[in-house]
Specification:
CATH class: Alpha Beta
CATH topology: Rossmann fold
CATH superfamily: Alpha/Beta hydrolase fold, catalytic domain
Shape: globular
Strand order of the largest sheet: 1-2-4-3-5-6-7-8
Structural class: alpha/beta
Largest sheet: 8 strands, mixed
Number of strands: 8
Order of helices and strands: EEEHEHEHEEHEH
Distance between the termini: 32 Å
Number of domains: 1
Helix content: 25-40%
CATH architecture: 3-Layer(aba) Sandwich
Strand content: 15-25%
Length: 220
Amino acid sequence: VKVKIPFGNKYLDATFSVPEKKSACGVILTHGAGGDMNFPHLVSLAAYLASHGVLCLRFTCKGLNIAYRAKAFKAVVEYLKLSDDYKLSGVFLAGRSMGSRAAASVIRHLSQEDDDDFIQGLVCLSYPLHRPKLQSKLRDEDLLFIRCPVLFVSGSADEMCEKQLLEGVASKMKAPKKIHWIDKANHGMAVRGRATDDVMEEINVQVFSWLREIIDLEHK
């Protein structure tokens, strides 16, 4: 289902992937610095989640300014929270690369503003912890303030997220967290000698099983 989400004086293009049965929980998903919501990994993940009963809303926001991207993400969260068509008890924010940074920023700011537990977790696909070859400056400021559960899915050969550095940041985080490493994958999740669909399947399965774990914990 295609929708236009109001954002300031313009609209963001977005698409709902709707499961057959009514879903109590949803995932909002966005892309990295390049591309848009039709980036193959996002389309694949949204379809997988919807086929396993989880509503997924993915949106496009062009712009390389992280504060602007975070504002757009916040507008989408508000839109879904007030939606009469899909009454959700909670959502997970998810993004690829720069999109995951925007999601982390939104969660940090929303947690300072209100105490409601509408946001249940964060999924970071290829979180860009540092610029290539610039490991001294880490983009970890938002991660250290987040309290909700966080899943990282990163390539072990990601040139923007060195393995030891992410593990170091994770050890300092107060939030419950899990890191799933895609063996030998780069920042674009490409693995030499491995089919793209195969890698996407691994990512999708990991994300869904983690979501199910968190949602189950909520209900216990």
